[in-house]
Design goal:
The protein is an alpha/beta fold. The chain has 27 helices and 17 strands. The chain folds into four domains: about 200 residues, 3-Layer(aba) Sandwich (Rossmann fold); about 130 residues, P-loop containing nucleotide triphosphate hydrolases (Rossmann fold, 3-Layer(aba) Sandwich); about 100 residues, Winged helix-like DNA-binding domain superfamily/Winged helix DNA-binding domain (Arc Repressor Mutant, subunit A), CATH 1.10.10.10; about 80 residues, DNA polymerase, domain 1. Strands 3-4-2-5-6-1-7 form a seven-stranded parallel sheet, with helices on both faces. Strands 8-13-12-9-11-10 form a six-stranded parallel sheet, sandwiched between helices. Strands 14-17 form a two-stranded antiparallel ribbon. It starts with 9 loop residues before the first helix and ends with a helix.
Length: about 625
């Protein structure tokens, strides 16, 4: 991480002392996490900052804490209503005066928020960029003291990023309108070109840049080949490792979201759909269930995105390829925000590659943008097909080198073998060439396997030299060869034809025998294995700490229902685990547990102590 020396001016020193005091009394943490104090010091000194830290790295505290210490209201620009609501609810639980301005607020509530803002009652105000950039709202802010301006999810400003929001482009005006107010941009995922664009577009050329590792060591990365119905593979994965857990499944289309959610429900998994085609009420109902249910799987398009603030998501699964490694890193980062073990599991096949290439080529974007999107897709495919440590490959994309293999991804846990596929590749490429580059993989596999289908006879392909020459591989093996040839760039998908494969210039050295080619060996179907988990219900007598933890979870659910908030806003699992391990007997001892601030101690302390006494 790029750190800075603590500012030596007396006002900054006293500000940091007050910030440390608020860190303990409001948030319940005795010390800063790595890097947080340096960012806080920068803002307290009136400087700008750009923070690129992974999801769960503690970015929010970097602006919440200075907003409590500096005079005025901290303004936070956020792209999603759900994200604003979660942040405001969490801060309110801590006793912080926070509110949000967005389009879902009734006129009366919106007026009440503006009155609180004008009267100086608010420590933090969350606002959507569309509302912030209206002349009326900018004029209102110009009359008020602002502690700072934080631009969350700053990657939305990048037109080459994975989640571009055009309205973010207007945020450059904040530097002109409020020149004396420190600004902070934050994002979890941005490769070097995207970071440069963020700095340029937001006018943060003088800002201190704070880069943390993109690594999430608690995430186990796994990519499996699609075999038949990927929903069945997902169900096996959930049954073996995540029964009763909360998780997210991403699908490419709304139809697939609906079908997958219904299928999982039919097979005993509590699952709900979420996509932009649903009504606002339906989406809100799914989101409310996701926040409050201990075990719910949400099947979603990327519409279910940045608003996810739940810390105990135990897995993120992709049944279709994401658009880029940035999108993949952002989406998988929604698992394991509490630092506990979690899974990033993805199934992919040749059709995924075909679909995304066709989507890029058939799109209306200018050719320069298409080239960038193709390179991003190539990087994603290289990640899927890598034989090295998967985490190493992912981090290298973001400009970071991992010193040693991680030991917590599929390629480390089950090393991938390669085989000399030069001759099979030549056969596959020859099949493409001899059929006039006018057919897709399914027909070409039939050709190599010698399947005398009606289509084969109609086109006279049963008389080609390549007919039946591929007996060394079964259909699944040939599909894997074609998939990897596309991923390696030897074959391209024709967007104007229905999944037609064409040779690229890179194919000819292999086809002519000038270059050898090694491909991944196909994995066997995944063995069902289960992570170490909590003891079964009948074994609690042997595990008093587990018994206490379950008693505290039951209390948390009761308190959350009474307060009308998600359970994790009362206490995170990690805080409950710490309480169960320490078994505090007094309020003073309970106050020493990380995550138990003054307001939570006041509201819930006696109930927690009583639950411990009764559960021991």
């Amino acid at each position: 991480m790029l750190a800075l020396m603590e500012d030596d001016r007396p006002d900054t020193r006293s500000g940091l002392e007050r910030a440390r005091a608020r860190l303990a009394s409001v948030f319940g943490f005795p010390v800063f996490r790595a890097g947080q104090e340096e960012v806080v010091a920068t803002l307290l000194a009136g400087g700008d900052a750009f923070v690129v830290w992974p999801t769960g790295g503690g970015k929010s505290l970097c602006y919440q804490l200075p907003a409590l210490v500096r005079p005025g209201t901290g303004l936070v620009v956020s792209p999603l209503i759900a994200l604003m609501q979660d942040q405001v609810a969490a801060l309110t639980e801590l006793g912080v005066a926070a509110a949000a301005c967005h389009s879902n607020l009734p006129p009366g509530e919106l007026a009440a928020v503006e009155r609180r803002l004008r009267s100086g009652e608010l420590d933090l105000l969350y606002v959507a960029p569309e509302r912030l950039l209206t002349d009326r709202f900018l004029a209102l802010l110009a009359e008020l003291p602002l502690a700072l301006i934080a631009i969350d999810e700053a990657h939305c400003v990048s037109q080459w990023g994975h989640d571009f929001r055009p309205e973010y482009l207007g945020l450059a005006v904040l530097a002109e309108r409020f020149p004396g107010v420190p600004r902070l941009a934050l994002t979890a995922t941005a490769d070097p070109p995207t970071r440069r664009e963020i700095v340029a577009r937001l006018g943060l050329g003088e800002a201190r840049i704070f880069l943390a590792s993109f690594d999430r060591p608690n995430l186990r990365y796994r990519v499996v080949d699609k075999q038949g119905d990927p929903r069945r593979q997902l169900l096996d994965f959930l049954g073996a490792e995540h029964a009763g857990h909360c998780g997210i499944v991403y699908r490419f289309s709304r139809a697939k979201v609906e079908q997958t959610a219904a299928w999982l429900s039919e097979h005993g998994v509590a699952a709900l759909p979420y996509h932009a085609g649903m009504s606002a009420e339906e989406r809100r109902a799914t989101l409310d269930r996701f926040r409050s249910d201990e075990a719910l799987v949400v099947v979603a398009t990327v519409a279910f995105g940045m608003g996810i603030d739940r810390p105990d998501v135990r897995f993120v699964a992709h049944l279709d390829l994401p658009k880029s490694l940035e999108a993949y890193h952002q989406e998988t980062g929604r698992a394991g925000r509490d630092g506990e073990p979690a899974d990033a599991w993805m199934a992919y096949g040749l059709q995924d590659v075909v679909n995304l290439r066709r989507l890029i080529d058939a799109g209306e974007a200018e050719e320069g943008r298409k080239q960038i999107e193709r390179r991003k897709l190539d990087a994603l495919l290289a990640y899927c097909e890598t034989t090295e440590c998967r985490r190493r490959a992912l981090l290298r994309y973001f400009g970071e080198e991992l010193a040693a293999p991680c030991g917590n991804c599929d390629t480390c846990l089950e090393p991938v073998a390669t085989w000399d596929a030069t001759v099979p590749a030549q056969k596959a490429l020859s099949a493409v060439y001899r059929t006039g580059e006018r057919f897709g993989a399914m027909h070409l596999v039939d050709l190599l396997r010698g399947e005398a289908t009606e289509k084969m006879r109609r086109h006279g392909h049963d008389r080609l030299p390549t007919f039946g020459v591929g007996g060394e591989l079964d259909a699944k093996g040939w599909r894997a060869v074609f998939r990897q040839l596309v991923a390696r760039g030897l074959l391209a998908v024709d967007a104007d034809g229905l999944n037609v494969l064409r040779l690229t210039p890179r194919a000819w050295p292999v086809l002519r025998g000038e270059e050898r080619l090694a491909l991944r060996e196909e994995r066997r179907p995944e063995k069902k294995r289960r992570r170490a988990s909590a003891p079964a219900a009948g074994d609690e007598a042997l595990f008093p700490e587990t018994r206490r933890f379950e008693a505290l979870r039951a209390l948390r659910k009761e308190l959350a229902e009474a307060a009308g908030v998600p359970p994790y806003l009362i206490f995170h699992d990690r805080t409950l685990q710490e309480i169960a391990a320490r078994v505090p007997a007094t309020l003073a001892e309970l106050a020493g547990v990380p995550g138990v601030g003054a307001k939570k101690l006041e509201r819930y302390g006696e109930r927690v102590l009583r639950a411990l006494r009764e559960g021991t």
